[in-house]
Amino acid sequence: MSQASSLSKFTREPNSILRRKRLKHAQPQANYLSYAAVWALRLLLTVRDGKRVQRYLCDQEEFFETVGIPPMEPSCGPDSLRAILGERLPVLEESLPPDMEVLSENIQLLGDALDLTNIECEILAFAVILYTVSWLENSADTLGVLDTQRAYNALATALLLEESDVRRALAPDATLAAAGMLRVRADMGDLKTKLQLLRSLPDVLLTKQDSTKVMLQPFFHTSPLATLTRDDFPHATAEWSLVARYLESTIHDHKSGINVLIYGPPGTGKTAWVGALAKELHLELCEVATQDTEGQPLKGQERFGAFLLAQRALRRMRRHVLLFDEVEDALPQLSVEVFGVRMRGPGSISKASMNQVLEQNYVPCIWVCNSIEQFDPAFLRRYDLIFEMPPPTRRIRKMMFRRFLEDIPVSDGWLDHMADNRDLMPGVIERASNVVRNIRPNTPKESETILNQVLKGTLEAMGYTAGPAKTTANSLPYSLDYVNADVDLIGVRDGLRMRGCGSLCLYGASGTGKSEYGRYLAQELDRPLIIKKCSDLLSMYVGGSERNIANAFKQATEEDAILLLDEADSLLRDRLLSDHSWEITLVNELLTQMEGYPGIFIATSNLMDNIELAALRRFTMKIKFNYLKPQQSMALLGQICTEKGEFSEALKRRIQMLEFGPGDVAAAVAQAALCREPLSVDALVTILERECALKNRGARPFLGFTGAVLSV
Q1: How far is CA 92 from CA 134, 153, 384, in A?
Q2: Cβ-based neighbours of 394, under 8 Å, separated by 6 or more
Q3: Angle between helical axes of 649-656 and 681-695 (0-180°, round to 10)
Q4: C or N: which end of the chain has fewer Cβ atoms within 10 Å?
Q5: 45, 93 in Cβ contact below 8 A?
Q6: Which residues on neighbouring strands pair with residue 263, listed in sequence order?
Q7: Are the C-beta atoms of 151 and 192 separated by less than 8 Å?
Q8: Cα angle: 251, vertex 299, 297; to 5 degrees
Q9: Separation between Cα atoms, residue 349 and residue 376, nearest integer Å
Q10: In whole angstroms, how far apart are CA 409 and each of 293, 434, 439, 440, 443?
């Protein structure tokens, strides 16, 4: 190997961990440019089309300056240019510096850590400069569109290597590709396009580094020591024991391909749970980077490149575990069919590559994500352990509030109220407490006001409600005196209190108090209430809706809560009326969960005739909610109106002609308040008449094509 191709003379420095000042793509020094010039000339002299070379170099002043010849004159023909470049090449080769200083030093550090060969180091240096020096890229572009074989030949020509050595160095199982640093694309392209270099690697290798550890920090870093412990996750103790025992055993036996997947809604404490587990097991937790040196988010392939680099660098380390957070943003998603063509999202890696990653990683890895709905089942089968981080129960939420707010004054009533909100996850609670702690409020009232404001903004931004529903000034207090059902609702309440389980189907017109009866039961039986609507359970992914249904019943079981499925006719539709297979599987899943549910389940429906017959058999009771009786209507209106006294006969007749429920009355009260009308009986009845007329609009004669045909 000639001096021109020798990059093995790397200087060595003792490792010292110093704080690195990040320099963004430092301008290559003269010795970098000297090597780039030699590589460029070797490539240019292989191009037979002299006019093509002339066209690509016509405005490359920096190239001519580095090569040491004056810029190309218009009168200079292709043959003359080729002769000048040919004469200049041996001169530049003879004057090459022994190495490329900073780049050589950094590649030497990296090579020692990853066991890179001299040839692999040379190819890596070439790729870094190719991505950095624009005129080297333009010179390589004169080669045109390359297949993989021609790309190997170009590298061999530029570096004076054997083509077979280049091929071995860039093989998929060789270190450069296996460590995620440099791989050859399969598709056609120019030389730079064919050589896919790990993002941020040029910045890192062209900046002075003090140690390998500091050099690799942009790709993975040691996670901060956890502040939480096992005691902070009483709702996930079973999962803790299982994962802890598995990691201890596999690390002791030096097994590879160890992968654990943890998923759950944002803020449930998944990442903190992993940190606490690693701390208890005395494992050093390293985390794969999510952004590059410029703060830009890394795409799927780029994050997996960082992951592979971390695996390679840590392969000899004992008692290390790797954390890959937000994995759903990096993993290949299920393909989408567009005009009959199956397509994968941009930036996602191939299935084969992903499967290989999961089966051959050196260091145990814990993968964390918010959802697994879009994951290909082929990937899920390759994880050793998969579990969903359960959301904390009401008791645990209250305990977390007490711990996070131990030095912040709040009232017990406020704690009880906020603990009812299932959307309040540990991460949300902790961040809100940090905000209040920095503001330093003086009184419990001030603390609660600030906390409410912070939590409201966070939860609403996440798409959740800011807190449990409160009774507004215009809402009506719920009373069974103003509910018209076909059974004794108090007797139903007492029976549920004694048995502790049962399933109710509450059906009838809207506004008759069905959902409110579920809230009434939760309050009377002192149980949490979980309300799910169709929109909460349906998912765009195959199997996602069924999983959401199962999770709803699981959550209700864990919290010993009453599960209320509002507008259940959308999910319990008669299977004979289904148009799609997924509708049938949805009903089947719901029926299965209902049959095995040990708690109290309530379904409300406005369209009883469309409900699946098999579902009706599974309800302990079917309770019809009717419109208020005239006596109930007048009693309710008389209670809420500001005017007291006997109703006139004309007013009684108007009320008797109407069909409405307590929900309609609440809407009328809200409408009167909005219009600033007095709460008189006459005003409310007038509003109710308008509302009832709108509800009865479906009884109008049908007009349209069919009506026209019938009239002929």
Answers
A1: 19, 22, 56
A2: 419, 420, 422, 528, 559
A3: 20
A4: C
A5: no
A6: 369, 388
A7: no
A8: 95
A9: 12
A10: 41, 13, 13, 10, 7
CA distance 413 to 211: 55
Structure tokens at 322: 């790797």
Amino acid at 587: V
Which H helix or E strand runs over 61?
helix 61-67
Most confident of 15-29, 113-127, 262-276, 354-368: 113-127
Residue type, 181: M
- Listing DSSP states for 502-567 in one string gives EEEEEEESTTSSHHHHHHHHHHHTT--EEEE-HHHH--SSTTHHHHHHHHHHHHHHHHT-EEEETT
Quote the CA–CA distance of 508 and 527 in Å, as a whole number: 25
Indicate if the alpha-carbon torsion angle 157, 162, 166, 171 is positive or negative: positive
pLDDT tens digits, residue range 350-398?
666 777 778 778 999 999 998 887 787 888 888 999 999 887 777 788 8
Lowest mean pLDDT among 194-203, 541-550, 636-645: 636-645
Per-residue DSSP letter, 219? T
Q: Give the β-pairing of 182-184 and 195-197.
A: antiparallel
Q: Is 50 exceeded by the pLDDT of residue 2?
A: no
Cα gap 47→158, rounded to integer Å: 13
What does DSSP say about strands 365-369 and 259-263: parallel, antiparallel, or unpaired?
parallel
- DSSP secondary structure letter of residue 328: G
Taking the C-alpha atoms of residue 138 and residue 296, their distance in angstroms, rounded to an integer, is 27
Token pair recorded at residue 611: 């409900």
pTM for the complete prediction?
0.67
Tokens representing 489 are 């609702």
Distance CA 650, CA 676 (A): 25
Is the pLDDT assigned to residue 346 strictly greater than 60? no
Q: Collapse the DSSP code of 182 into the 3-class scheme (helix H, G, I; strand E, B; otherwise coil) and give the result.
A: strand
Distance of CA 156 to the CA centre of its chain: 43
Closest CA to 6 of 100, 71, 90, 136: 100
**Alpha-carbon separation of residue 487 from 623, 626, 632 (angstroms):** 7, 11, 16
Residue 685 and residue 637 in contact, taking contact as beta carbons nearer than 8 Å: yes
* The two structure tokens encoding residue 227: 């502040």
* CB proximity list for 377: less than 8 A, separation 6 or greater: none
Helices (H), 206-330: 212-215, 237-252, 270-280, 300-313
Residues 6+ apart with CB under 8 A from 708: none
- Picking from 451, 442, 389, the residue whose alpha carbon sits closest to that of residue 421 is 451
> What residues does 365 pair with on adjacent strands?
259, 322
Report residue 233: phi and psi, to 5°.
Answer: -130, 55
Hey, what are 565's tokens? 């499925």
Mean pLDDT score of the chain, rounded to an integer?
A: 83
